[in-house]
Amino acid sequence: MSLAKKIEPAPLLPENSSRWFSSRGWTPRPHQLELLSRARDGRSVLLIAPTGGGKTLAGFLPTLVELSERGVKPRRMVSTGKELRRSEGLHTLYISPLKALAVDIARNLETPVREMGLPIRIETRTGDTPSSKRQRQRRDPPEILLTTPEQLALLLASADAPFLFGNLKRIVLDELHALVTSKRGDLLSLGLARLWRLAPGLAMTGLSATVAEPEDLCRYLVPQSEGARAFADLVVADGGAEPNVTMLPPGDYLPWSGHSARHAFPQIYELIKQHKMTLVFVNTRSQAEMIFHALWHINEDSLAIALHHGSLDVAQRRKVEDAMTAGKLRAVVCTSSLDLGVDWGDIDLVINVGAPKGASRLLQRIGRANHRLDEPSRGILIPANRFEVLECNAAIGAVADHAQDTPPLRIGALDVLAQHVLGSACGEPFFADDLYREVRTAAPYDQLARADFDSVIDFVATGGYALKAYERFAKIRQTKDGRWRVANPMVAQRYRMNIGTIVEADMLKVRLVRSRAGRSGHTGVIARGGRVLGEVEEHFIEMLVPGDTFVFAGEILKYEAMVENEVYVSRSASEDPKVPSYEGGKFPLSTYLAGRVRSLLAEPKNWPGLPEQVREWLRLQQWRSMVPGERDLLVETFPRADKFYLVCYPFEGRLAHQTLGMLLTRRLERARLKPLGFVANEYALAVWGLGDVTARIGRGGLSLEALFDQDMLGDDLEAWLAESALMKRTFRTCAIIAGLIERRFPGEEKSRRQVTISTDLVYDVLRKHQGDHVLLRAARADAAQGLLDIKRLGEMLSRIRGRIVHKSLDRVSPLAVPVMLEIGRETVYGEASESVMAEAAEDLIKEAMG
Amino acid sequence: MPLSPPTAVALPASPAFDGAVAVAGAVFVADPAGVIYWPEQGLLAVADLHFEKGSSFAERGVMLPPYDTAATLARLSVLIAHYAPRAVVALGDSFHDRRGPARLADTDRATLRGLQRGRDWIWITGNHDPEPAEGIGGRFTETLKVGALTFRHQPEENASAEIAGHLHPVARVSRHGRAVSRRCFACDGDRMVMPAFGAYAGGLNIRDRAFARVFQTLRFTAHMLGQQRVYPVAAENCQPD
Fold first, then answer.
1. At what angle do helices A285-297 and A265-274 cross, to 10 degrees?
2. Do domains A29-70+88-236 and A244-400 have the same CATH topology?
């Protein structure tokens, strides 16, 4: 739409800028000029461009031009009575999801600014910025500041905000598609709402990769008002060459289940050898560890292959990134940790091992190869099992169709709002009416009800409880004229220490120590020292027993002990580690891709594109049972050993299937079918038990329509949520973001293990005594989309109404094999906690009687 | 401090009863809710109630839900109604801090008074509540001797025939790759450390060094609190954190 206008470059670029372009032998790209022209008109713009499209320069060009036309303004310091400060605040604010990106962009901007001879100061402000520089920036800000959403929130929560941002002309939001999908996006949107009030003439520039709904991002970029929805202009840059994506033909053997792709390691190695620089993307950190380990095992040519994932020590990750940029590496095995960010050198191949999960994610990963628009990016997909062949096939189709499946815009979370409300009070006293109006200009909060807003204020002040016991301990109080302000400076200090929406799953440092000779019975401090390898989630370590081995940081390690907040490990001689299943980067299969897989499966005329083993597998399924129809839910029941199984194929991702499994087992329990356990993967769910499900359905004693009825999302869900560990984890995140529980106290950093109150206990008490508390509502809203994926489950249940097809079989079907093979790998349901203790108690009895 | 002489007490018929635990020759019912009942003496003991922990945090700006005292009292009321003890011994840290008794809500204070009616109520002082307090009824003492047994808050080094609290024991077991952590009674037949009862009371793994001062070896049992019963598990079969 936007590029239809005739572009005349000459008047747009001032002399020094066009000289700079021609000195480099470049011509400005059409979208760069288009952004300049929109800037002239004072418009806010969303620019969608592929990586390598000169996106960042496009975002900054209007600022550079403006500042150069304005001419050199002498730096004037004026007295405020208390201190000297610059006569003007910031001109342009750049916000990126990654602080490394902000630093990198600042460096890249220095060159054109210097070469165009512009008298502009460009500075970054991140968590690493020394406090002397921070202090100075408040008094003497640069023209352009590059920072992160958290740092922006901190700046806004100070009395300096009106000075710093009062003359702000432009905000550039980078990687906007990634920012808006999380609570960080909520926090940023609230910060923007404040900036729109402080600097009414502000122009917004959003930079984004291709998304499914650009209108959502256009709305996010500009203030919303009651009644009419407002949008930024949309500029779409030329997409460049079509990416070349293929699937690696499977060899003789294609596994039924698992995600290791072990069979393809030699081929991956060969591909690395044939290319200059390869990125090997995988979905989980444990997969990354395993592939990295295996590649080194067969690395006869000693190729420089490195590992990069979010659990590794930051210094280690930076080293890998630098080596990539310097062209010193041949391959990097990585997770989504490299999905975003700067140009990582000259990559000529991207390999994606395992399920692509989503079309947009895959496109962004493949776009990492060849950051030059005129050459196609080359990507190779390696399915690790049969179902993943279907998913890879569907993803290749989606890429060809330019389909996108980025998630829709979030509804702003109430816990994030609570953090913002406290931050607002730390800045300057506010009237509730004003803040409510301001908050609603942020697109994620434009539907916020006044009652919800008021309950958030109440929460921030005194906890928001029905009992008014805490009035005298209030954190924010109303002054006589009705303005809310912080009760004391300590509150503001603690707010600043606990800002942000990224709540790490309780991470524990992994420290390498020497193996202990003997083991005393009690735990406690053992010899310290050794270097930190990185961090793992606490719940992963909770599964381990001292002596267990796992792969981490490319080595096989033995778990020795937990000492305070650190996991002590030693090098292990073991060849066959107990591979960790620690999470990190487990995205669910996107709804869009799931739909494509279902339709691929349902239409045998689509099968010829599939490898022979897969076609054979599907034909067998047709013959033994049936292939599920595109919109149907196939339910198979069959006996096996002395148990009875029910397998269904919703294709809604592991998270939604786990929730479904929990709810189905409850219902089967009530139907006295004695369920024993269930297991879920991305495509299917298997439930088993002692009762003969097939016979019960045959007699009309169990209706599948009733079993899968949507009403399971009522009482059954509530009852299960009461004790669900996932729900408790979700609640903990909300409690921390909202500021109920503090992560850090002045003078010390506390981790959860040291925090003297368990959020699980708080959850139990609160749920029983005030079930509608604002934090519980926030946690439920998260559960709907997060770890429990209830929203998607609900949509599936409504899709399959009246479309359940039951097959009663005498044995397991070919399609069921993959999920059945997961049994034993995944933890299963049940009165499991009780039975674990009962078995442990049995041991005691045996010992006593034996 | 002496207890008044026992009258004849019959063992209440409890569906939960199967957790008979002996301490220095005396037999107790270890209730899965986390209290012990001594039928012979008609005595119920409960440890580390930590009343008003929520409001104690609120004083410092951490607004925990203010329902912990009511929740703890409600659970205790059920047990007192069930066992109808002649005496209740609270093993110290009954209030989370010294100002706790003053912050007690009127309704909770009334509930407490109701529980105390018609029975002997003994507050053993703890490190969180080292001094007798007003307005909460009962009698105060540092230790209570009943027969050969001593009840006190903090286990003493080299003590014998002792029932204490303070350490908030939690045991962790795992089977089939699944770990379960629960509050527990830690007991070696001569001494017992009771689990914390308070709604917001945290826990300490029984394999932690702190327990080495009570039980020199791992030859003790963790009676883990289940839904309907307690599960005795050998300490050496429990996992450290």
1. 70
2. yes
DSSP three-state, residue A644 = strand
Distance from CA of B166 to the nearest CA of A (A): 15
**B66 and A469 in contact by Cβ < 8 A?**
yes
Tokens matching residue B220: 């003790």
Q: Which residue in the block uniquely carries the two structure tokens 């079989």? A: A809
User: Would you call A581 exposed, middle or buried from its count of C-beta atoms within 10 A (0-12, 13-18, 19+)?
Assistant: middle
Q: Given A524, A827, A841, which is nearest B177 (Cβ)? A: A827
Q: What pLDDT score does A119 carry?
A: 83
The CATH architecture to which B20-153+160-237 belongs is: 4-Layer Sandwich (3.60)
Cα A413 to Cα A405: distance, rounded to the nearest angstrom:
22
* Euclidean distance between the first and the last CA atom of chain B, given in angstroms as a whole number: 39
Q: Which CATH architecture has domain A244-400?
A: 3-Layer(aba) Sandwich (3.40)
Query: What's the count of helices (H) and strands (E) in chain B, helices before strands?
Result: 4, 16
**Which spans in chain B are helix H?**
53-59, 68-83, 100-103, 106-116
How many Å lie between the alpha carbon of B28 and the closest alpha carbon of chain A?
Answer: 19
Which of B50, B52, B53, B67 has the highest number of chain A CBs within 10 A, making it the mutation to test binding with A?
B67
**Residue type at A703 in one-letter notation:** S
For residue A769, the distance in angstroms to the closest alpha carbon of chain B comes to: 7
Q: Which residue type is seen at A422?
A: L
What is the tens place of the pLDDT at every residue in A13-72?
788 788 888 887 778 888 999 999 999 999 999 999 876 677 888 999 999 888 888 766
Specify the DSSP class assigned to residue A580: -
What integer is the mean pLDDT of A276-303?
89
Of A467, A742, A837, which is closest to B231 when you measure between CB atoms?
A837
In a mutational test of the B interface, the residue from A473, A475, A522 whose CB has the highest number of chain B CBs within 10 Å is A522
For chain A, domain boundaries: 29-70+88-236, 244-400, 414-502+725-783, 507-516+528-571, 629-724+788-834
**pLDDT tens track for A493-538:** 999 988 888 776 566 788 888 765 444 444 444 455 677 887 777 6
Complex-level ipTM? 0.88
Distance CA A645, CA A636 (A): 8
**Topology of A29-70+88-236 in CATH?**
Rossmann fold (3.40.50)
- Contacts of A702 by beta carbon, 8 Å cutoff, 6+ apart: A671, A673, A693, A696
Across the interface, do A765 and B241 touch by the CB < 8 Å criterion?
no
Name the pairing type of β-strands A305-308 and A45-48: unpaired
Looking at A633-750, which runs of residues are DSSP E strands?
633-640, 643-648, 675-680, 685-689, 744-745, 748-749
Whether residues B178 and A465 touch (CB distance < 8 A) is answered with no
Q: What is the pLDDT of residue A443?
A: 97
Contact (Cβ atoms closer than 8 angstroms) between residue A589 and residue A655: no
Contacts of A762 in chain B (CB under 8 A): 64-65, 200
- Integer-rounded Cα Rg, in Å, for chain A is 29
Q: How far apart are CA A139 and CA A80, in angstroms?
A: 10
Q: Tell me how far apart the terminal alpha carbons of chain A are, to the nearest angstrom.
A: 82
Mutate to test the interface with A, among B109, B223, B231, B239 (most CBs of A within 10 A): B231
